[in-house]
Amino acid sequence: MRYEAITWARLAETLAGHLDASGTGAGDAWLKVAVDGPPAAPGGELAGLLAEALRTRGRAVHVVSTGGFLRPASLRYEYGKQDPDAYYSGWTDTGALWREVFGPLEPGGTGRVLPDLWDPVTDRATRSPYVTLPPRGVLVLHGPFLLGHWFPFDLSVHLRLSPAALARRTEESWTLPAFARYETEVGPAEAADAVVRADDPRHPAWTGLRT
Fold this sequence. Notes:
This protein is of the alpha/beta class.
């Protein structure tokens, strides 16, 4: 896999330009974008830069983090607070993402997206109001383990860290087996439309777009 040096700002501009010119999402459809990567990667920052670049092009954007769609603590910690398998497949409420985020953006949908569902700090529902994304708007979803769920992304970007960099920059080391499992079962570098090497967040490099 060949990588080319790029800045985060130029990466966001390139992705925004591709999305804005894309035939997908023409008419009244919505575009859905994944920024996939571990917490040690700057996925939230890239999602924010991409949103800014799209808005300058006149596109409405709504950014959603999977951190707002965690399941209640009683379900996340059913097998203990440091179970990597539960972290991998049981922490994020994928059913709620389908229902509250992707469902409203299907053809003929309302466009009313729930920005978040659960506050993991208080372990209570956030009760956030719905946000209406107008036709031709763009959803940007960021978080870990986004690929492999059949989410209907029009563009997916995977932020990749080498095993050594991931281990060095991950605060919760017990989660590392979950990322190894993701590599084996999903192969995000092969599944994504673009891969960004983020071992050194100051000097990203990427593969370019495969679409």
